[in-house]
Structure formats: C-alpha cells, structure tokens
Amino acid sequence: MAEVLVLVDHADGEVKKVTLELLTAARRVGEPSAVVVGEATGDITAKLGEYGAEKVYTAPAELNDYVVAPKAELLATLAADKSAVAVLVSATAENKEIAGRTAVKLGSGVLTDVVDLTADLVAEHSIFGGGVVAHARVTTGVPVVAVRPNAIPAEAAQGAAVQEAVTVELSEGAKAARITDRVKESKGSRPELAEAAIVVSGGRGVGSDDFSVVEGLADSLGAAVGASRAAVDSGWYPNAFQVGQTGKTVAPNLYIALGISGAIQHRAGMQTSKTIVAVNKDPEAPLLEIADFAVVGDLHKVTPQLTEEINKRK
Amino acid sequence: MNIVVLVKQVPDTATERKLNPADSTVDRASSDGVINELCEYAIEEALLLKEKHGGEVTILSAGPDQATDSIRKALSMGADKAVHLNDEALHGSDSLQTAYALAKALGTIEFDLVILGSESTDARTGVVAAALAEYLGLPQLTLANKVDIDGSSVRVQRQTDDGYDVVEATLPAVVSVVEKINEPRYPSFKLIMAAKKKPVTKLGAADAAIDTALVGVANATTAVVDFAEAPPRAAGTVVKDEGNGGVQIADFLAAKKFV
Ligand SMILES: Cc1cc2nc3c(=O)[nH]c(=O)nc-3n(C[C@H](O)[C@H](O)[C@H](O)COP(=O)(O)OP(=O)(O)OC[C@H]3O[C@@H](n4cnc5c(N)ncnc54)[C@H](O)[C@@H]3O)c2cc1C
Ligand SMILES: Nc1ncnc2c1ncn2[C@@H]1O[C@H](COP(=O)(O)O)[C@@H](O)[C@H]1O
C-alpha cells in the first residue's frame, strides 16, 4: 500500500492529539508514515505506532531554526523519494504555510481547513463561517491536505512504527528567514485551546483583566480558556488565546461564550463547535442566534453560580 | 525602501456570501466587494515604514474590474500608485495559482519588501504569502505582529501558537501581517481627492509573462466536487436570568452529559 506522509505536531516529548487524528485519516488512504522533526523519543514513536504509523521518519531539529521553508523541503523530498500519495498536516497557521510551499514544490494542490477526508482524497470543507459545506479534491500531483483539529475522531490501530532517520541538505533559500528567539506566553496547566474538548471563552463583558470568573468555570469543566479579540486587545488575556478569524479556529464538543457579542470574525473561529452556550446581558447579541442554550443576564452573577453547581454535581 | 502591498477585494463578510453554481467560484456579484480587512493592516504597515524610511508604496491587486474600488481605497489611505492585474484568464484561480500570478506581476515592479495580509476573509486559506515566497525564492517573514527595518535587514515578531518568534532576514523579503500589528488609518478627504489622480497601471496576463495554461478555474490545482448550504443550527433555548441562570445552564449541560 502506498505511503501517506503525516507531519507530526509534538511538544515537550508528547504527540499532539491532532496528529493521532491525522494518522486515523491517513489510514483510510494508505499506510501512514509519520514525519517527526526533532527528537522522536521512545514515547513519541510508541504513540505514533499505536495509531497506525508504519514508518516514523525523523529529521534533525535544525529544521526548526528557520521559518517554514525547511519543513516544506523535507516533506516535498520525502513525498518524491517515497512516492507518497498524499501529505497531511494539521491546519494550524504555520502548518498551512508549510502545506502551501510543499504543494508549490510538488507542483500539486493544497486543501486547507479540511474537516473530513475520504479514501479517495475528497476533502470536506466548512466555509463562509460554517454557512456552506463544500467537497473538493486536488486535481494534479500529490495532494497536500491541512486538517482541522477535533474534526476527525482518532482511533487506535497498531502500526510497526519503524524508525528511519532522514537527512536533508537544506538549500540556502530555505535558511533565508532565521528564527533568532522564541518567546512563549504562559499557558499554565489547562488543555491546549485548539485541541480541547471544552472551551470557555471570555469577551469584553468580563470587564477587566481579572479573568478568574472565566478560568474558574473552565477549571470546573477541565476546559481550555479562550478570549475574544476585544479581551485580547484590552490586554486582559494573552494573544495566543484569541479565538476567531485571526486567532485560533476551535471546534470543541462544548463552547461556552461569556460576554462575547459574536461578531462574524469571532464566529468564524468557533461556529462549528458541536454545542454552544452563551451568557450575555444583551438579548440581541448575534451569538445567541447560534447558541444551543443561552442565558440573558450578567455573567458575573450567572457564571459563579454555574461553576459552583458543576463542582457540586461532580 | 520601495514596498509593494498586495490587496485583495473580497465579498463583504457582513452580507451573505455565495458560491457560483456554474463553476463553484466565489460569487462576487451577489455581495458588495470590500477591501480584505487584513490588507488594510498591510497598507497601514507599509505607510508607517515609508514614513520612517522613505520610498514608495505600490498597491498590487489581482482581480476583475470591480477591484478598482479597493485599489482606490488603498490609494486614498496614502499609497503612491497601483498595479491592477486583470485578465479573464485568471478568473477562478485558486490560492496557489494566485500566488504564481502575483509573483509574475511582481517581476514587473522594483521592490525591497512585499507586504500581504495573513489571510483573506473569503478564501481563508492563509497560504498565499508562503506560496509567494516560495515562487519568488525570497525569505518568508509571515504572521508578523511587529516589523522593523534596519538598513538592508528586516526583523519581525512572528505570531506562533503559544507566543512569538523573532525572525530575521535580508531584503528583499515577503512579510505578511496579523491584525495585532497596527490600527489602519481612515482616508482623509484630501487624500480621497488626491487618490483619483494617482496612476493605476493595468496589467494583462501577457504583460506579466503569466503562462495562462497555469492559471484560471480550468487549470486549477484543486476542484470543488459539490457544495451545499449547511443545515441551519437548530434554534436554541434562550432564557432570561431570574437568579437561577447558572443552575439552568448546569441542568442543560447535565442533560447533554457534559457534567
Ligand atoms: C481583521 C479583523 C480580524 C478580527 N479577528 C477577530 C478574531 O479572531 N476574534 C475575535 O473575537 N474578534 C475578531 N475581530 C473583532 C470582532 O469584529 C469584534 O470586535 C470582537 O469579536 C468583539 O469582541 P467581544 O464580543 O468580546 O466584544 P463586544 O462586541 O464589545 O461584546 C461584548 C459583549 O458582552 C456583553 N456584556 C457586557 N457586559 C456583560 C456582563 N456583565 N454580563 C454579560 N454580558 C455582558 C455585551 O452585551 C456584548 O454583547 C476581528 C476584527 C477585524 C477587523
Ligand atoms: N487576488 C489578489 N490580489 C492581491 N493580493 C492578494 C490576492 N489574493 C490574495 N492576496 C493577498 O494574500 C493575502 C492572503 O490571502 P489568502 O491566502 O487567499 O487568504 C491577502 O491578504 C492579500 O494580501
């Protein structure tokens, strides 16, 4: 069976959930080959095997020292050498860029923000903020597909996970944009926003940089915390937590919006959440139109009561 | 410092957006065209850099006749001149084809820096800037929330999943911006009037040496198989808080097995 390359997302020695989802999708198409940039620890390799990776290609961590181009060179080279039938990446901002450059190198096409994939590589998209469902395919060359986190449920299936180190001779061009420093904004111990099953977000309605009302509810549910752009721009919550068109796209099982009006740019990043709950004092707020359950009221009264109630029922 | 800003006209997100049943391209007739929001941030950043380092700001837009509205708007913010790539052969090009066509059009312009929006509101692919850098063989400094130029080098803060990376390269380079970077200005009356006289160069595919066998919906690298309106979300329950709103949400969550 033909190989399907899956670019692995990992941090601190752990494989991200979305990679397991990609491996699951890859098995529909062919034999998954995981591509790890940086050290593939025993734990990483084992996990990739549990979700069906037959091969695990490892490339030097040096590729991470430059923006995007080296990983595209790696994927394009591997795709050609191994006659891969498709390349899958997660639909993060950076990986979509990698996907675009890989497709240019392969002379093929790229599909981004895919929510489902068939065995013959027809991809489902949810476009215009969830208003239209479209199916598309790549018409030429090896398809490069960026799949949204939380869209395809991960299912375990044992693969051989045979490791193979790959060396890439980076072109000078690939080293043109050097990363000279990395700055991380604190995250704490909550689940990661893009991958979380439950997300609790706060907006301008929270009213100050005291986000404890949002965080308290999130912790009672084991949820990630998100924020609207208004809250981020006000300096109440770090940028990395923005949900929306220019922030992260999330599609959790449950999305709770506290004091968020639901501007189109916010909805673009959360509209495909399976269940939506909103608390807003304005009955006309657009978010209420797409909420499965909404309370019109003051979030500073409703939320603490909700948090207490959840903690009581646990 | 000569800067080219890539500007795209998109259907207004505030109106209902549709796809053409005939060829599954974005139906630009059914909703008002506006300048892609993130492109305004790109223009603003170019103007700020020009104010600091001098030079000229050129707008480059690929699109049908209507795109002239967005080009005029860009000029009225303060850009100096524009190039409008407009050719029937380009209709329905996908994002990689667009990047190719833009790369070719950039071959007709002298520049030190190209600035794009990181994403458009209609396509939302977020691949054009990266693909453009690939086609041009120039350094890619994308998703920038801060840009600094020092002589012949450029340094940006690149927004990442959990913070930002500092990225450095030498000019010429491709930069894409996120909306954190600045606050776009409103055109003044004086600039709006002045914009009417600013030069807009029309460019056809042949003028930019674009191979028409590589662009347009017929040669697209991706094809829409089918599309349909998503079933509307079932109407939800809205209750007014009478002092037990929190308990009511908890009941709802319990019924849905979240607690
Ligand atoms: C290019 C561009 C990109 C953008 N990208 C994003 C993006 O990625 N993500 C994003 O979120 N936005 C984005 N926006 C901004 C978006 O248009 C809105 O401005 C933003 O989402 C508003 O945030 P908000 O809902 O928190 O604030 P507001 O719109 O001010 O809404 C606050 C809400 O809180 C309610 N409220 C106030 N007090 C209380 C209270 N005590 N109890 C209960 N409810 C209360 C109010 O009724 C109101 O509905 C973008 C805009 C542009 C132009
Ligand atoms: N037709 C076009 N003409 C000029 N610039 C474009 C065009 N299409 C895309 N761009 C640029 O590419 C950016 C990202 O678009 P996209 O990748 O399509 O989401 C936009 O913000 C524009 O700066």
UniProtKB/TrEMBL annotation, chain A:
GO MF annotations in UniProt: electron transfer activity; flavin adenine dinucleotide binding
The record's free-text note on cofactor binding: Binds 1 FAD per dimer.
UniProt cross-references to SUPFAM superfamilies, sorted A to Z: Adenine nucleotide alpha hydrolases-like, DHS-like NAD/FAD-binding domain
Cofactor(s) this protein requires: FAD
Entry keyword DNA repair: no
Entries under Pfam families matching the protein: ETF, ETF_alpha
UniProt record, GO biological process: fatty acid beta-oxidation using acyl-CoA dehydrogenase
CDD domains documented for this protein: ETF_alpha
Keyword presence, GTP-binding: no
UniProt keyword terms in alphabetical order: Electron transport, FAD, Flavoprotein, Transport
Positions contributing to FAD binding: 204, 228-229, 242-246, 259-266, 280
Residue span(s) of domain Electron transfer flavoprotein alpha/beta-subunit N-terminal: 4-183
Cited function: The electron transfer flavoprotein serves as a specific electron acceptor for other dehydrogenases. It transfers the electrons to the main respiratory chain via ETF-ubiquinone oxidoreductase (ETF dehydrogenase).
Family that this chain belongs to: Belongs to the ETF alpha-subunit/FixB family.
Assembly: Heterodimer of an alpha and a beta subunit.
Name recorded for this polypeptide: Electron transfer flavoprotein subunit alpha
Species of origin: Nocardiopsis ansamitocini
Automatic annotation (TrEMBL), chain B:
Molecular-function annotations in GO: electron transfer activity
Pfam name, any one: ETF
One GO CC term on file: cytosol
Keywords attached to this entry: Electron transport, Transport
Cofactor (UniProt): FAD
Residue intervals of the Electron transfer flavoprotein alpha/beta-subunit N-terminal domain: 23-212
Physiological role: The electron transfer flavoprotein serves as a specific electron acceptor for other dehydrogenases. It transfers the electrons to the main respiratory chain via ETF-ubiquinone oxidoreductase (ETF dehydrogenase).
Subunit annotation: Heterodimer of an alpha and a beta subunit.
Family that this chain belongs to: Belongs to the ETF beta-subunit/FixA family.
Name of the featured protein: Electron transfer flavoprotein subunit beta
Gene symbol of the encoding locus: fixA
